[in-house]
Amino acid sequence: MAVEAEAAAPAPALTLEDTNINWDRLDKTRFHVVGAILFTAQSALLYPTAVVKTRIQVATSRLSHMRGVSVFAHILKHDGIPGIFRGFGTSAIGSLPGRVLVLTSLEVSKDATLKYMERLDMAETTRLGIANGVAGMLSNLVSCVYYVPLDVVCQRLMVQGLPGTTIRGGPLDIVRKVIKAEGIRGLYRGFGLTALSQSPASALWWGTYGVSQHILWRSLGYVDNMEKKPSHVEMATVQATAGLVAGACSSVITTPIDTVKTRLQVLDNNCGEGRPSVLKTANALIKEDGWRGFYRGFGPRFLNMSLYGTTMIVTYELIKRLSVQQR
Description:
71% of the residues lie in helices and 0% in strands.
């Protein structure tokens, strides 16, 4: 009877294990439904910074040298609230299936890597960093296949009317015109650059996050299998800080490639004759603004990625805690 009573006793409500919830502990349906709702809300909050960043990177006029706040005010003045959310509907709806693919591949690959590395003799910090990094890279490769065409469409919606771009209608009209002009390849402009650059960047982000969170917990005195348990506020604070560090590191490293990729995907006539390429786009950018041009939109991108890293990971970890299977 004592054994049965002990087996029936509920598990602790909150342990250090709940700061790193594995895939096999999740209710998959609840995970994806709750994730769709909360991530859409989070994307809406940060979407204006993406619009400002894209406008600065693509603009060939004085807009490219304006501060992010000034560009934001300029968009509000000329286009109103719809201007800072241009393309959001397409992005939000189009992201739903992709998010299922990305989150599933992220969690499955992280879980598999952690299980494989249990047999290896290495520090836990290193093991978590590698597992998170591998998961980030693999999930980003999956996401590129789905999200690059969506990015091409959304970014063209963001910058309609700017010099070098063509006035188009809605998202379906953009898809039709791009396919007519360039075929399916046109929807995958910048795919190679995105995959080659963002996959290592994603590995860096998730690896940095995993290591930062582990170090923060240890510095606060938390270890596995102890009575002292972190509160919800502590969990959110530590995870937000780790996300901020990861986002800041990633933005510094990836902004130049992101600028070239964005211009390659959006501008129709920025490279002269022939099909646009990475080299042509980079040369055109250097002619316009020198090497500093590669960091166009760095302020909004730094803000976007830092805020995104913070809010995304807090939201993501909350979704996982809400989706843990009831025992």
